Amino acid sequence: MSALDSNIVTIALPNIAKDLSAGYSLLGWVLAGYVLAVAALVLQAGKLGDNYGKKRIYLLGFAIFGMSSALCGLSPSVYSLIAFRIVQGAGASVMLATGIPLIFASFPPKERGSAIGINSVAWAMGAVAGPVLGGVLTSIDWRLIFYVNVPVAAAAILVGRARIPAYLNARNPNASRLNLPNAIVLGIAIGLVMLWLTLLDLRLAALGGLGILAFALVESKSKNPILSRELLRNRGFVFSALGLGIMMTSFFGVVFLMSFYFQSVAGFTPLIAGIWVAPLPAMLGIFNPLSGKLFDRFRLPAIMAILGGLLVAGSVFLLSSALKTQSPGTTITVLLGLIGVGGGFVWAPSISSAIEFARPEMRGVANGTAFTLIYVGFATSVALVVSVSTASLPAALSAQIHSGAVTGLSTASALLFDQGLVNAMVALGIVGLLGVPFLILVLREQARRRKSYTEIQSGETKVASVAA
Q: Of 3.40.50.1580, 1.20.1250.20, 3.40.50.150, 1.10.10.200, which CATH number belongs to 2-166+226-467?
């Protein structure tokens, strides 16, 4: 449901712009407001699961998501839509914070990578269906893309109550309490930085920097910080989470950018645009479970993530060259598929590594922290695409696009906007390359950890032999 909604919304943005008279920057916030809420609240949502039971909180997330989806569909303006999308993001944060820990609690260590990979198929199915279904529903009425979540959420709650075992609702007596003030400061800081990236206003950059400093200050003095100091000292976890967050910044931005390319530059309908985007999530769905199984078998699974990261970055750079024509062809289809393959080999190994580096009782917080960085990356990718794609445009065209006129461009305007999108795609490729060094550091930490484990086992064997 979450993946379906994300992709459906991306395809529908040009129609939402026309219906609600929303500008390009505000359209970015229809996505960014959602991911901002996730980034700011996912850690606190993980603590809710520890305090009140993961099953109970997981199903609460579905309820919030379903109700806010209905409100999104009823939105009379882009501002109310953004507000309800923030509430929807709060519901998504609850599901994200408790979903993977539920899987970890349900499977033995040797099967967890496979389980997460198979679970990712559900995401990929929604991601594949999203663009196509979004194109169909948007052609009728874009509000249907939100209403479709309501029956799905209701069904999920009924099935979850009956099928998720009661023992997964156990509370952790040692769980830390919530710290909403710090979460609010974090959300404000991220929001200001995103506004700066979107509007390129140095005043917002200064306020964003002050927001980050304020968050660091309140965290350093807090007896209950929302970022675990233990995890921040865990190099394996930090490198895994940072590498994944940076790579997902490159990955997520591609889908947002391509939606505007197909509809604003190539002139496709929402349905045809959805079909053209589909190869990326389709390949992600195929290779996510495969990479999960390989994670369980590989001695050093970060090798897969490194190869996947290089494939994503390289394909994004090649895609930037392919976008220099207004007539999409086979090359674009193949490259979108390769980005999906690379993303599949980054996702399952990286998120599994991040959680496995943490102690068992810290895995809920580890999962929440990792998803915070992932969704900060998602929000950053949207802001980056908006700012870079319009930075080099003539003032009149930039104003036209920012006012919401992103479809029906003249041939000359479409060519100029296409060049802006090419520049944004190059920027996404550079970001993807920046994530690879962190994945290499994960590989080093995995090798160090394996060597330490082997030495301990060897020592125990010698002790047992002497005793015998």
A: 1.20.1250.20
